Amino acid sequence: MGSVKPYETANGRRYRVQYRKPDQTNTTKRGFTTKKAAELFLATVDVDMSQGRYIDPSLAKVTLAEWLKTWLDARNDLRATTRSRVESIIDTHIRPELGNIKIGNLTRLRIQEWASGLPGAPATVRKTVNVLSGALRFAVEDGRLVNNPAHRLRLPKVVKKVRRYLNHEQVAALARAVGGISDGTRHGYHLIVLTLAYCGLRWGELSGLRIMDLDLTQARLTIRQTVVADRGYQRIEPPKDYEQRTIPIPAFLCRLLTPHIADRSPEEPVFYGIRTGTWLRNHVFRVGWFDRAAAEIGIKGLTPHEMRHTAASLAVSAGANVKAVQRMLGHASAAITLDVYSDLFDEDLDKVAISLDRVAMQTSIAELLGKTETFELEPERVARPGLVELPAAVRRSPWDDVPPLPDPPMTGAGPGL
After folding, report:
1. Residue 259 buriedness (CB in 10 A; 0-12 / 13-18 / 19+)
2. What is the enclosing helix (H) or strand (E) of 150?
3. pTM for the structure as a whole
4. Close Cβ partners of 337 (under 8 Å, ≥ 6 residues apart)
5. What percentage of the chain exceeds 90 in pLDDT?
């Protein structure tokens, strides 16, 4: 329990509330113009302390710029690349406009006005707001704020783009085109296209792939590290979500990779930069080979990451279920895979209806049709959204130029998904 006492000022009588905080130190709040307002504040403090909801006002007097530094210093879980991106967002978009405001004085309206003025695409705006919201959520958890004023703001909606998926013929044409540019085949760069399209790797995973990570006798590759670009430098980091994963390799790709890695050191990158001899950079591969090859086969603007989408599409069309696709791509859960690639599983819904119809027609449900002629639905080929048509000039058998090689011995599980 505290006390309310009056005191005189040049503007008349004011009231001061004195009370003891949970840490048993005394504190005072001044400036109340009426005794009733002071008593009401004291009563609110008493209720909050009795229910464990008390927030020390002095803890919210730190500026947002100071709190962002404290929050970022405490985040030792962030990857180096993520930390660099967050620091850039803070320095560019948050600190200049909001940095001098005390976190206790940040209102939802002020933050909404700031968010509404942010430049960039909707996804970029959301990433910027998420940084501020994460820092303020930590202030709530630290007992500095009652609630997070940046939570659930009105933000521009992200329009989901239609994904492009290549078929087998297009993948073969792209690989052939990459191989024909600047000795691409001699350096194994055509195999990059095939590895991305049939194993679903992220670029950092492919760049960090070493000879020791391939087991061609078992038709498997293991993701043990990833190579990322951070402020112009390449850095080796653990895989995303810090989880290694093993991915099956199709037998034909094993045959192609066998001579490419023969007699090389286990520590060497599977795919390396021609000039550096070390981890291949995404930008170098795109500018030197990939972009030009994509334009040659009529798919201008294609990116290496879209080959990961293609891997998901080819796996689903080959009969892989969502759990298998999730494991191949390294998603945290099957729910994420379904959310990202829901359009790939539309054909499965058609198959469910067909199967239900066949079973129902073998029961008394069929009698409900009366004299109506019964019929059986046949599955139809469903056009996959975003599928790119391949020019007739490059419609060839996928492996016309692949020399015959003996199949690798298979001592364990096969290469299927």
Report:
1. exposed
2. none
3. 0.72
4. 312, 322, 325, 326, 329, 331
5. 63
